[in-house]
Amino acid sequence: MSGAAAQVDGQQGARGHDPYALGHGHGGHGDHEATGHGEGGPASKRIITGYGFWIFLLSDIVMFSGFFAAYAVLAGETAGGPGGRELFELPRVAIETALLLLSSFTCGLGSVATERRSVFWTQIWLLITGVLGVAFLVLEVQEFAQMVAEGAGPQRSAFLSAFFALVGCHGLHVGVGILWLGTMMAQLWVKGFRADILRRLLCFNLFWHALDIIWVAVFTIVYLLGSGV
Amino acid sequence: MFGKLDWSAIPFDQPIPLIAAAAIGVILAAVLGWITVKGHWPYLWNEWITSVDHKRIGVMYVMLGVVMLLRGFSDVILMRTHQAAAIGASQGYLPPEHYNQIFSAHGTIMIFFGSMPFIIGLMNFVVPLQLGVRDVAFPTLNSVSFWLTASGALLTNVSLVIGEFARTGWLPYAPLSETNYSPGVGVDYYLWALQIAGVGTLMSGVNLVTTILKMRAPGMGYLRMPMFCWTALGSNMLIVAAFPILTATLAMLTLDRYLGFHFFTNEAGGNPMMFMNLIWAWGHPEVYILVLPAFGIFSEVFSTFSSKPLFGYRSMVLATLFIVVVSFTVWLHHFFTMGAGGDVNAFFGISTSVIAVGTGVKVFNWLFTMYGGRVRFDTPMLWALAFVLYFVVGGMTGVLLAVPPADFLLHNSMFLVAHFHNVIVGGVVFGAMAGYEYWFPKAFGFRLDEWWGKLAFWLTVVGTVVVFGAFYIVGLEGMTRRLQHIDNIAWYDWIMVALAGTLLIAGGVVAQVMQLVMSIRHRDRLRDETGDPWDGRSLEWITPSPPPVFNFPVLPDVHGEEAYWEIKRRAIEQQQLSEVPDYQPIEMPRNSPTGVITAFFCTSVGFALIWHIWWLAALGLVGAYVTFVVFAWRDEVEFEIPAEEVERVDRARRESRQVILERGAPA
Q1: Domain shared by A33 and A66, yes or no
Q2: What is the least distance, in Å, from the CA of A168 to any CA of chain B?
Q3: Are B559 and A157 within 8 A, CB to CB?
Q4: Is A198 exposed, middle or buried (0-12, 13-18, 19+ CB in 10 A)?
Q5: Cβ neighbour number for residue B351 with a 10 Å cutoff
């Protein structure tokens, strides 16, 4: 079908019957080359999964932008209560940042081990990533508990509402990520490097790095700017 | 044990919701009983409820949309009859707190559970067929999306009998929606129903964007996609970019209500106007999420029924993408009266007028598509023609409202109500109806009855013009929206005109239902044997009606912009079908109950959170997690359709195609 069709198309189809080709050079478009943009037919499952997950991550970042916008509007609304300068303890935040960035690095090492199909090292690096993530969460919960104990909980002022929601939303993402990570480890243990599990590991890596990017924004906009450094 | 839930939640003292609920309960019980007696459960479960086939899911989306449009229309009847009976000395029959719930539920249901599922269903059904592929990018996720949307619709309707719905309007403006002023569960129903359905919509958006960008038949370049695929792409990109804002905004209001946060409160530095800004930063793109696919449907319909390629395809693509971008820069026109200042209002006034240019381009393209064509006036084309005439009026009153000084006078008036119904009914509902009439034969293998279809069309369109014509006039005369009682008897006549128009629309609804019933009854006479009942131009018409589960025996090879038209033209010229291809076995995704089970748990979580039943919420979350783990643990995710079966299906299709060859040159 395709050979004869292309002939028809080349001789009369493109010029005589191609209603939109007026003034538009279609010459460069080979019909049968895979251009990587779908023109060569549907992309592979790995590409589709990764691409779809990227789109999801973009939407997640838009959601965070909503919380960032609310924080920006409400940052000055302390209602006579404590502000960032009194509340934020930068040393702890520095440790949190270090833990999370390090966990991103170990997560990357995990994906290198996956590329080499080493179940053992993949599991080790995933485990370390998870432990670092838990340590991050422990510090964050500690910070939150301390603030609530000082009477600076989210009900105190609009500024604190926005702070707890934004930072807490990131923390919630880390928590969900750790749950996912544990599930992935169990799955890898039982099923090994199956094609679908490789795709899920790829998505997990993307997710974990995205949380890192968001944390960099939280660290800069909330903590550094907020404590007036 | 049951949180805030006790017997007082059921409105035993209010006959209207009780009787309505009882009627729905009886109908539901009758349907379920009939299914059980006839033994249809295995069929329903295997072929529909657990199906991951984009066509089945699309049909279920549309069915949900249709049922919810009827539910929303019942609110219309209540509101119109009540207002007609509540002028001057008359007091009507709905108490204020009930009337407020009705107009809130009407807007919420029509947008989120009527229009959205209808439009998403059409995209689900049509887009993979037009792209020449076998399914969407993530078939099981697609099923999850649908069932989450259904879950939100269920929660909204449960509020009819258990508790109450929001009394805040379809967007729960703060601080009215805060606990101080809305202490009941109404706003909570709204929040959780929308949050659950919103997640479904977002995932559906991710799914369709990925499908359109990464899964197309060989040769289907971007500028060879049918217009509906382009507008679906635009709409779904908007879903991905806008729905997360809704999620964040509703989460903030939820935190305010449940945990005493101060995002939108009057006290402690909260900022109610931030709610308006955030909700409309989602809300205005939402308008285009709904109307862009409708524009795509009209493009397909105008081209098919004028027997011509779409005029100005490239400018249509550009106009669509223009609207996608600019739709994020107009939200403030929903509250010019906020007092943001002349410069801010001027910016948003101008951007609002500018976005109409994109739509104007499209209108002219549709008109020029008809020009010089052989126009056939089948029912889908009638809806499309009514759309152009009616939508232009709505567009122009929109540009009028975009002028801030005029808006200060017309804000919150019936004129505004007339305007947005004019564009949403004229754009989205007419578009949905055109799409329904146009693609029904593809989905079910028989056409819809033209006589009943045309009757439904005329009654609905005339009724719509009458109702909203009356609204425009009383709006200009100063009537504000959402009045439970009307003091000014000068508006009496127009309210009666609106009531008469509503009755006409009701007749249209009845005729529409009759059309379906009569078409099913006479389906043998209306059978679509060729798979190409309208002399179509895009790839969905190359498949048999209804298409086999794998859509295409071999993926079509696309040459030129109108993929199927080219193939058809060539076949007719040469008086022979293309060569018999080399059939290969096809792998298709297995069905999965993940979607429906997840939605079951999400409904439980939503209901539990509304009534503060914390143990049930925790249980539901664990259940949803376990469901996903079970899904992830599956070993067999696909099944194989043998090459012989593919060949058998395609042989039948090729035989029916012979009819088209003998029909002669394309009209």
Answers
A1: no
A2: 12
A3: no
A4: middle
A5: 18
Domain check: are A152 and A50 in the same one? yes
Are B560 and A13 within 8 A, CB to CB? yes
Nearest-neighbour CA in chain B from A99: distance (Å): 27
Contacts of B219 in chain A (CB under 8 A): 31-32, 39
- The angle subtended at Cα B107 by Cα B105 and Cα B109, nearest 5°, is 60
| CATH number of the domain where residue A80 is located | 1.20.120.80
Please identify, in words, the CATH class of the domain defined by B312-525.
Answer: mainly alpha
Per the structure, how many domains does chain A have?
2
8 Å CB contact between B474 and B495? yes
Does the beta-carbon distance from A39 to B245 stay under 8 Å?
Answer: no
**A72 shares a domain with A6:** no
Q: Residue A159: name the closest of A61, A85, A214 by CA.
A: A85
The CB-side HSE value for B552 (13 A sphere, CA atoms) comes to: 21
Instruction: Write the burial class of residue B667 (CB in 10 Å: 0-12 exposed, 13-18 middle, 19+ buried).
Output: exposed
A73 touches chain B (CB under 8 A): yes
Is there a single domain that holds both residue A167 and residue A90?
yes
pTM: 0.90
| In a shared domain, residues A114 and A158 | yes
- B residues 612..631 contacting A (CB < 8 A): 625, 629
Q: Which domain holds residue A23?
A: 1-42
> Could you tell me if A9 and A37 lie in one domain?
yes
User: Is there a single domain that holds both residue A19 and residue A74?
Assistant: no
User: What pLDDT was estimated at residue A10?
Assistant: 35
Domain identity same for A30 and A66 = no
Q: Which residues contact A217 (CB under 8 A, 6 or more apart)?
A: A64, A68
Note whether A32 contacts B219, CB cutoff 8 Å: yes
Nearest-CA distance B212 → chain A (Å): 9
Positions in chain B short of pLDDT 50: 666-667
Does A108 reach chain B within 8 Å, measured CB to CB?
A: no
Per-residue pLDDT of chain A (229 residues), as tens digits, is: 333 333 333 333 333 443 433 333 333 333 334 444 556 788 888 888 999 999 999 999 999 999 999 999 998 888 888 888 888 888 999 999 999 999 999 999 999 999 899 999 999 999 999 999 999 999 999 999 999 998 888 999 999 999 999 999 999 999 999 999 999 999 999 988 888 899 999 999 999 999 999 999 999 999 988 887 4
pLDDT digits (tens, 9 = 90+) for B460-514: 999 999 999 999 999 999 999 999 999 998 999 999 999 999 999 999 999 999 9
- Note whether B314 contacts A66, CB cutoff 8 Å: no
Measured between beta carbons, the chain B residues lying within 8 angstroms of A49 are 138
Number of C-beta neighbours around residue A121 at 10 A? 15
Q: Provide the residue count of chain B.
A: 667
B265–chain A nearest CA distance, Å: 9
> CB contact, 8 Å: B313 with chain A?
yes
Decide if A77 and B271 are in contact by the 8 Å CB cutoff.
yes
